Amino acid sequence: MAEWLQDVEGLTLEGQIKVPYTWSVGEVGSRFLVALRDEKKILGNRCSGCNMVYVPPRRNCGTCFKDIDENGWLEVGDEGEVTAFTVVRYAYPLQPAEVPFAYAIIKLDGADVGFLHIIKEDLEKLHHGTRVKARFSEDRHAHILDIDSFVII
Amino acid sequence: MEKIAIVGVGQTKYERRKKGEIFYDMVYEVTTKAMEDAGCSLDDIDNVITISNDFWDGRTISCMAVQEAAGAHDKNVSTVEGDGTFGAFYGAMRVLGGFSTTLIVVHSKGSEGDPKIITNAMFDPVYHRSLGLEAISSAALQANAYMHRYGITEEQCALISVKNHGNAKNNPYAQLPLDITVDDVMTSRKIAEPLKLLDCSPVSDGAAAIIIANEESAKRARKAPVWIKGIAHCADAYFLGDRDLADPRALTDAARRAYAMARITNPQDEIDVVELYDAFSYMEPLWLEGMGFCDPGGGGEMTEKGITAMDGSVPVNPSGGVLSAHPVLTAGLARIIEATLQLRGEADNRQIDGAQTALAHGINGPCGQSHCVWILGRE
User: Which residue intervals of chain B are DSSP H helices?
Assistant: First the structure.
């Protein structure tokens, strides 16, 4: 860096990239989100090769590299067990809740993989193995936040 | 594998904000440094790999903007969007594929964008992004899963931060040399439990470059070549919930294959120095476990017992590691450069005496979704 620059504030250029996207949710994702919206149900699907139950559901099993077909669909529980969590203490604009809130990986009853979501209340009661239940939003739009959060049972 | 070597290296000083340099300037600086280090001119470079990320740079096909700075004008140039270790892996493959000399150059300026908003965008937009998850909160989930599984304590992780920031005092390129105590780390601001401020790496600006050559070209290098003995990478599942976050099995796989190529059977005895990607303090013991330096759950004790200290049997991150400077993408290539300097005996105050074999490691994706392992040697 040139010497003269050390004594002054370098010029900067303010900018922002704001690009609207319209992402396709796809067949599998649409079915999952519509079940949240219309039935307050959490759907998963089972690989016929390894019997792994995925939630959210998948187009194919990554391990077996097989299609998960129509017969694989099932409803998993809206309750489950916390397998990992963190209480977030910093705020930034994209968070869906006021801090502090928690992220948790939840093993929903009947599923074999963890489901990632948030917990807003009773954070001091949060432990490994804590049982939690999905709380659905009143106003649902086929969106992952149709589940408002999970609450400790 | 045919003999290929690292014959030139260059890096910027890593800083919170480089106010005087645009990323083009940084690329030019390290490209020039690496060629000077190798004792070669642009005529000796027959192809170039640039490493950049459009979202961090705020520019579409950002690689195109650094061609002249990287000496790639009128040359065969290709780009990797990922950590520097992965770009260097591609560079090594190009030399194995018939090119004689490949320049690999990486840059990033974390200071220019917004790291939380940018890392939020690495997650799935349908299921995870609108939860606000980003690099820190996802790492905190992994720290929680790992520490709970094996009873790793926050104090053990704090000790790693103390060690690495202390090592950084010997590295003129490091951003955060710090004299701190375990208590300082434990009482630093809570970020996302169990992570506290001093468990987290900083936002950084920086660039780095290396030159990889085949055996014939390596003979013409100004300095002793550092030979690439083994390289491998492996990826795990994308969704965090699909992975066992306490078991970095992709790293285990990559390390096993790199060791096999380098004919290493006992890493703890045969590797003299390790430079690994400790973006958060808990990552150092977790990655050491994954690379087989100890049993699962044994990583915390390695630092307590002094094994990973500068004078220990497996010194880890003599440079201060990623905790002491975290230019995204660049940080992995910096690990390779530090390992190279160690093997040349050019690491000055951070030199591990007589280092013959070194390991450098980088990660891509949240919570170490994929890992790249390099084994380098003097012979």
Answer: 23-38, 54-57, 84-96, 115-120, 135-150, 154-167, 182-186, 215-218, 249-262, 267-270, 283-290, 299-304, 330-344
Q: Is residue A7 part of a domain?
A: no
What is the rounded average pLDDT of the residues A19-41? 97
Residue B315, min C-alpha distance to chain A (Å)? 31
Query: Does any domain span residue A92?
Result: yes
More confident call, A9 vs B106: B106
Q: Partners of B316 in the beta sheet? A: B274
Comparing CA positions, the residue from B297, B282, B284, B301 lying closest to residue B193 is B282
The verdict on residue B234 lying in a domain is: no
- Specify whether the CB–CB gap between B5 and B40 falls below 8 A: no
Q: Is residue B355 part of a domain?
A: no
CATH no. for residue B16?
3.40.47.10
Residue A133 within any structural domain of the chain: yes
Q: Whole domain around residue B26: which residue ranges?
A: 4-114+203-218
Taking CA–CA distances from A115, the nearest residue in chain B reads B241
The per-residue pLDDT for range B255-276, each reduced to its tens digit, is: 999 999 999 999 999 999 999 9
Among the partner residues A5, A86, A115, nearest to B241 by beta-carbon distance = A115
Which residues of B touch chain A, with CB atoms under 8 Å apart?
Answer: 18-21, 58, 116-117, 120, 125-134, 136-138, 140-145, 148, 189-195, 237, 239-242, 245
Mean pLDDT value of segment A106-130: 98
The answer to the question of residue B105 being in a domain is yes
Nearest to A117 among B20, B131, B142 (CB): B131
Q: How many domains does chain B have?
A: 1
Which residues in chain B have their CB less than 8 angstroms from residue A81's CB? Answer: none
Instruction: Work out the average pLDDT over B243-250.
Output: 98
Q: What domain count does chain A have?
A: 1
User: Does B309 fall in a domain?
Assistant: no
A124 found inside a domain: yes
> How many angstroms away from the CA of B354 is the closest CA of chain A?
35
Q: How far apart are CA B183 and CA B159, in angstroms?
A: 9
Which sign, positive or negative, has the C-alpha torsion B334, B335, B337, B341? positive
ipTM score for this prediction: 0.97
Give the residues across from B183 on adjacent strands. none
For residue A1, name the pLDDT band (cuts at 50, 70, 90).
low
Does residue A19 sit at the B interface (CB-CB below 8 Å)? Answer: no
Q: Which domain holds residue A105?
A: 24-152
Q: Are A96 and B237 inside 8 Å of each other by CB?
A: no
pLDDT at A3 over 90: no
